[in-house]
Amino acid sequence: MENGRKRRPSSLKLTSSRVPENEHSKGRVCVLVLGDFGRSPRMQYHTLSLAREGYSVDVIGYGGSMPTNEILMNDNVATHYIKPPPAFEKVPFLPRICSYAFKVLWQTVTLFFALMFISRPSAILVQNPPSVPMLPVTWLACKVKRCDLIVDWHNYGHSILALNLGTNNFLVRMSKVIEENFGRRAFANLCVTEAMKSDLQKNWKISATVLYDRPASIFRPAPLPDRHALFMRLREHYPVLASTGPDTNLITERFADGRVHLRQDRPGLIVSSTSWTKDENFDLLLDALEFYNEQRNNDSNKYPPLLVVITGKGPLKADYEALIMLKDWQNVEVCTVWLETEDYPKLLASADLGVCLHTSSSGLDLPMKVVDMFGCGLPVFAYKFPCIGELVKHGENGLVFETCQELGYQIANWFEGFPEKSPSEYYFRQNLESFQKVRWHDNWMKNALPILTNSSKTS
Fold first, then answer.
1. What value does the mean pLDDT take over residues 68-82?
2. Any bridge partners for residue 335, and if so which?
3. Which candidate, 293, 285, 340, places its Cα nearest to that of 310?
4. Under 8 Å between Cβ of 179 and 191
């Protein structure tokens, strides 16, 4: 670990890992993620805001990626990892329904015992999805421990399940029924968009409070020396960023007097972040880059070469990396990277354009990656789906597109005359300054804290 001592997430077998409530504590809250907690930024933000406001927090989730340093070092937070289920779906000749049943049974037992182990909280705040078995198990645990269930709706579990199984599959329909019934039984509900709030109320009679994702303080514009230091580190691992000279890289250079400059011959830098899943169609971006490559072949003085950096991990990453390797582009370079937590915001702040391909399985959630990009002052071109307008205002802080042709033309127009900024870029970046003024904790204090306060009074 870097930067001094860090507390390791504790095992559920270690009673000494519990965070004691002191006389100044406002109470105890459990934050639950039935997934990799280190890859759940919104739930990490909840955790930090709770701790900042004086709550003792028990986090339950799967291991994998490390949470932020702030969580690891926070004396008000105890992180408990539960063991993820074995890969039952890989067992030969085991029917899909059986592997799903074994997975749910495993999760039910481990999750229930984890919830029974922790000290009694005033509320359990859960991330949905996944819904099964988390919602019913957590509801039962709340009854046993006499505390409140608060559901934070990021999306619908049944809509994600339907991506693989189809909307009429029995498991999808069962998941939908469970979501509706146990969501209705919660003490309170949070959600990520006005569109989702309306849908929950209209179809399931669930009243929810909208808590928009907002950027954490780490997502902000970065000074040029910080960007230079980032690219100097990255060039050691990604040769595409290397350049001749001891203190230069593909994007920036430092002169003998110590001044750092953006290189005039640098490529246009596009950043896209992804979880490499089916709800993001990267073929759209690859086809748009194919179009751009041909545009520059026809007029190399008008358009710069492009470097496209794609961050993230996920199940389809290897497939797309193989597809990218087959491309014979002369003017576009694509680099897939995995960054340290503190480096990701600096990359966003260094880019010339962000691209988001999130399509939303329900059509009701918003991509947090765009929130992060906006926090760094980076304009975004985003795939158009029903509620994206709640975040990306077409022609004000970014553009939306539906086809690869649209995206290709938008990218070409954006980089025409580069490295000079276009009037649109100046305008978009100026509009993003107002977005950057409202950060996560301010928004959380206004919309989420009153719910937690009421929960503490009723428990």
1. 93
2. 309
3. 285
4. no
The CB density around residue 272, as the number of other CB atoms within 10 Å, is: 24
Q: C-alpha dihedral over 84, 455, 443, 380, to 10 degrees? A: 30
- Kindly tell me the sign of the dihedral angle through the C-alpha atoms of 154, 318, 283, 414: positive
Asked if the model's pLDDT at residue 8 lies above 70, the reply is no
Q: What is the pLDDT of residue 114?
A: 95
Helix axes of 440-447 and 449-458: crossing angle, nearest 10 degrees? 40
Which residues are registered as beta bridge partners of 28?
56
DSSP summary character for residue 219: -
Query: What is residue 296's three-state secondary structure?
Result: helix
Going from the C-alpha of 12 to that of each of 16, 197, 281, the distances in angstroms are: 10, 35, 39
Hey, what's the torsion of the CAs at 291, 292, 295, 301, to 10 degrees? 180
Distance of CA 72 to the CA centre of its chain: 19
* Max CA separation in the chain (angstroms): 71
404 within 8 A of 291, measured Cβ to Cβ: yes
pLDDT, position 90 = 85
Strand arrangement, sheet containing 353-356: 332-337, 306-311, 268-273, 353-356, 380-383, 398-401
Token pair listed for 168: 């009429």
- Among candidates 119, 92, 88, which has minimal Cα distance to 101? 88
- Please give the pLDDT value at position 61: 95
DSSP state of 12: T
CA distances from 101 to 71, 161, 313, 438 (A): 34, 14, 27, 44
- Burial annotation 40-65 (CB, 10 A radius, 16+ → b, else e): bbbbbbbbbbbbebebbbbbbbbeee
pLDDT one-digit tens code per residue, 255-286: 988 899 999 999 999 999 988 887 788 899 99
Alpha carbon distance 315, 276 (integer Å): 6
287 exposed, middle or buried (CB, 10 Å; 0-12, 13-18, 19+)? middle
Q: How far is CA 220 from CA 2, 17, 223, 378, 455, in A?
A: 22, 34, 10, 9, 33
Distance CA 35, CA 64 (A): 9
Supply φ then ψ for residue 115, to 5 degrees. Answer: -70, -30
d(CA 29, CA 59): 9
Whole-angstrom CA distances from 25 to 59, 138, 221, 301, 448 are: 17, 24, 35, 63, 18
Give me the pLDDT at residue 338, please.
Answer: 85
Name every residue whose Cβ is closer than 8 Å to that of residue 265 and which is 6 or more positions away in sequence. none
- Residue 259: count other Cβ atoms within 10 Å of its Cβ: 10
User: pLDDT digit string (tens) for 402-433?
Assistant: 999 999 999 999 999 999 998 999 999 999 99
